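FadR family transcriptional regulator: structure, please.
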Amino acid sequence: MALRAAGRTSLVDSVVEQLRTQLADGEWAVGDRIPTEHELAKQLGVGRNTVREAVRVLVHAGLLESRQGNGTFVRSTVDPAAVLRGVRHAGAADVLELRVALEAEAARLAAARRDTHDLLRLRAALTTLREEGDRDADADLAFHLAVVGSTHNAAFVEVYRFFSAQVHEVLVEALGDREMPPVDIDAHEALVAAIETGDPEAAERQARELLRVPMETVAALTERS
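Here you go.
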C-alpha cells in the first residue's frame, strides 16, 4: 500500500504518524526491513532528511531498529505512546478497575514467592506509610511497588511502575480538587500479614478490599459530576 504524500506543515510529524499507522495496520511485520530512505521519500514526496528524522523518532520509541549496513527493521508494531494515550483517555473508574486487577494478582503472586528481603521491604514501606501520613502519595506508591516487587516478575514491575503514574494523572484530571478517602493503614497491614503467612487467596482478597473504598468513592464522585 502506498503511503499518502505528506503536506508542507510539520513534515516530520506527518511522516512519523503515517509510519506509525503503517506499522499498526500490519504493512510490515516484526522483523521485516522497511523500505529505504530513498524509497520512503519518493512515496511520501518529502526529502530524505525528513524521512531520516521520522525514522529516528520511531527508533527512539522502540518501534524500529536501525542496523548499521543492513537497513532499518521493525522491532514492534505496538506503539507505547498509543497505549499511554488510551489510558489517559479512559475514565477514572475504568483505570481503577484495571488497578484492582493488577494489584490483586500481584498480591497473590507475592504471597507465593516472597522471601525474607521482600518481607523486610514491605514492613519498612508500611512503617514509612504510617510515619509520613495517610495522604502521602509517594509513600503509598512505594508500598504498592514493594508488593509488586515481591512477585519477582520483572515484566510485572515495569508495567506497574508505568501504569501507576498514569493512574495518578487520570484521577487528578477526573476528580480535580475533590479528595479521595485517606489511605487505610489497617488494610495495608492486613495485606502484608497475608503475604507474610504465604496465603495467596487471602492476599488477593485483602488487595481487593484495600481498593474497595477508593473504587466506591470514585464511582460516587464521577456519578455526581
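Notes: The two ends are 46 Å apart (CA to CA).
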